[in-house]
Amino acid sequence: MDADGSDDEVPNLVQLELNARITAEQDEEVPKLVASLDETTLSKVPITIVTGYLGAGKTTLLNYILTEQHGKKIAVILNEFGDSIDIEKQLTVSDTNSTEASPIPFVPLANGCICCSVKDIGVAAIENLMEQRGELFDYILLETTGLADPGNIAPMFWLDDGLGSTIFLDGIVTLVDAKNVLKSLDEGYGDEKKQEDEHDHQGPLLTTAHLQISHADVIIINKTDLVSEEELEKVIDRIRSINGLARIETTTKSQVPQLEGLVLDLNAYDEVTDADLRFASKGHSHLDPTITTTTISFPALSPSQVDKFDFFLRTILWEETLPNATPDQAFEIHRLKARIPVTDGCMLLIQGVRNIYDTNEVKAPPSAKGVEAKLVLIGKAVDQPALKESLIATLGA
Ligand SMILES: Nc1nc2c(ncn2[C@@H]2O[C@H](COP(=O)(O)OP(=O)(O)OP(=O)(O)O)[C@@H](O)[C@H]2O)c(=O)[nH]1
Ligand SMILES: [Zn+2]
């Protein structure tokens, strides 16, 4: 885990101050605290990380979801102080269980969802919260603070099955403020600290906005009411050039047309489909000087090249150097997806975030016959020719 991943201890809960008004109607709908978690019947709960720059519309999205009648039991976790106040103000809060005897800082809502606030985030913390609550939820949504780097958060929740966690990472949704995002990308607007850091290194600016866009599986461009159609097109093009893998949606007031595929059921970390990689492979532009998406295509691997390919990945992700080639510029990989056919009829599906990656070997579908291998990289200087040269040289070595 990298330097920032030090959130191993269970964080303190931030007590929501509730001035609860209990109505008879709500009282009936609010589920009571019952059974504790039963390991044997437990299925894993997907967690979606909702990120986005300051004021982009994260809380607006979560409020929208919490008040909609979608028939789903969603636990919303806020990783910030300010928003607990928003939620308290904006939602009719029922607090049947929070007498002195109950330390649980959840706000149960009329549609079966709950909301709570944590100071720090971590798998243990969230599992504890779920256990405390004694109920199963269909989904967990975690709103990070506006300055969070999702590349540090995602690996915490992207766990191997073997670890027996009760939650799994479904994906990362990044809210973008259509009006301010270009400024944020160009100037690190409101982001002075990052900017100072960047001045120490040379090269184009890497802002929080870049990090939040490059790690996203879904990007919701919000506040479209504040920009013209031309401006919106520019925003979409810039974002697409940074992240060619993410699904992009535009909204006003964070009102997503549906939850499935945009906020829930993203499955962004459990498979790599052809469709996932198709868009990224349509050539790349250089609208953003800092972060870009690039696709490296190469022939299917022979079984003896599989280990060599893995060595290539380990070297670029863990050593941050190129085997058998010299990089022209320092590179930095934020996100990686690959579909690699092997000539023995297997297919390698590879997922990566920062320096962590996971390879799944599946039987290649018939449609994969004669298809090239594709490695998609999102990051800094990932489009330099030396990367492909290194790969080809390593496979041939
Ligand atoms: N004009 C306009 N305003 C919006 C839209 N969506 C949200 N807002 C407003 O923008 C402000 C910030 O929205 P939030 O949802 O609090 O943003 P956030 O990302 O949670 O902000 P932080 O938690 O402070 O980082 C609020 O006043 C919202 O009402 C939109 O589509 N158009
Ligand atoms: Zn917020």
From TrEMBL:
Pfam families the UniProt entry points to: cobW, CobW_C
InterPro entries: CobW-likC_sf, CobW-like_C, CobW/HypB/UreG_nucleotide-bd, P-loop_NTPase, Zinc-reg_GTPase_activator
Reaction equations catalysed: GTP + H2O = GDP + phosphate + H(+)
Domain of life assignment: Eukaryota
The CobW/HypB/UreG nucleotide-binding domain, residue ranges: 46-248
A GO molecular function held by the record: GTP binding
UniProt GO cellular component terms: cytoplasm
Keywords: Chaperone, GTP-binding, Hydrolase, Nucleotide-binding, Zinc
Protein name: CobW-domain-containing protein
Native source species: Ophiobolus disseminans
